[in-house]
Please model this.
Amino acid sequence: MTQFKTVRGMRDLLYEDAETMRYIEQTARQIASLYGYGEIITPIVEPYELLAAKAGEEVRSRMFTFQDLGDRRVALRPEFTASLARVVATRLRNEPRPFRLFAVGSIYRYDEPQRGRYREFWQSDYELMGSSRPEADAEIILLTDSLMKQAGLKNHAFKVGHVGIMRGIFRQEKLNEKVQDEIMQLMDKKQYEDAFKAVENAEASEKCQQVLRDLVATGGKDTSAVIDSIREHVKDYSSAVEAAGNLNEILKLVSEGGAEIDLTVEAGFERGLEYYTGMIFEVNIRGLDIALGGGGRYDRLIELFGGDPTPAVGVAHGIDRMMLGLQEQKVEHGGQTEALVTVIPIGDAMRSQALRVSRILRDANISVETEVLGRRMVKALEDADRRKMHYAVLVGEREMKEKTVVIRDLRRRDQKTVTIDEAIEIINQSRTERS
Ligand code: HAM
Model:
């Protein structure tokens, strides 16, 4: 018989992994609510053109694309940003700004599978639309910092840059948009020599080539010194100077905002997505050589989708990678299911009573598994022991007549006959002791 496996790059998440995933999702929701971001649920399948526009070659070429039965060209979403921009351009068009939108769910990219890189993965996404001001950019960085902390991750660090620096130079050098995009893609992949070659081939000036080399070598944690040096390198390119000034303002707001953030500015840092127009950033943790999140400012996407001009900035976090980070740093989280109580009928005649007792316990908010294999008590208890359950509630004929049950403490290995209310009290008591 055929043994089916999951599709390459896609995984089943079992028990603890599923719990960790939901724990991060829950934390992401909590952060959304603390910062006032309202959740939006959008379809996993979207028109190909919507997702392809400005996604960048890297993402575009890796989309799961197909014709549906109505001959429409559709794709599985490779990110949330396009869908949320579509919502703002259409359904929210006449609503007051700014919009703070949150989405969480599965994302699909035909990436080469490896540790932390899957073809189905999960993102939490936050978009702040309708403000071009630096405090909006700062909010997105601060929110990411809050999420990492709240999830329990340690030693996270930001890498920040600004698309406007390079774009400003390229525009002044009159490089066409397509060539610019190609160069940015190469920079994103850190293929700097190829990028310099492309700049040379595009007949940019000698000075431009030198400035780019200088920029790629410019970075560090002393943000104002780095920005000063960027300003110096690009002094002949007015909009690049402006971009450096904008980055400076954002970073000043972030540091004056009071959060202690480990942050490095890199003038040569680029991201694969083409829609970015301003500040861009990624967040990493030590020991994991992959980004846990990334984002930036994109001021023209909503307009491109037929909406009113709406400057925007946002971020998406890779939930799978945050999971890896939690495992790597051995962070315990409160998401684990607490040990269960098992309810065992003593003999078939007690099956319905066992279901009834289970229901009463659950009504008291106690997690219960009812014995459903018809095993003898000894076998069922052995199994409960093996699974590290805390209590067994035994439902026998004699006790039922007396409206009682036997509660057995599986760790202390003692038992007593009590009313159901008393059993609930005992279980709750041990829960408070543990917490
Ligand atoms: P992105 O950098 O393409 O940005 O993805 C964001 C995060 O998703 C990454 O930092 C990473 O943690 C996770 N991720 C990406 N690809 C994979 C993969 N194959 N397997 C596992 N995790 C992955 C965006 O998606 C933009 N939409 C972010 C944004 C929102 N910009 C503005 N608003």
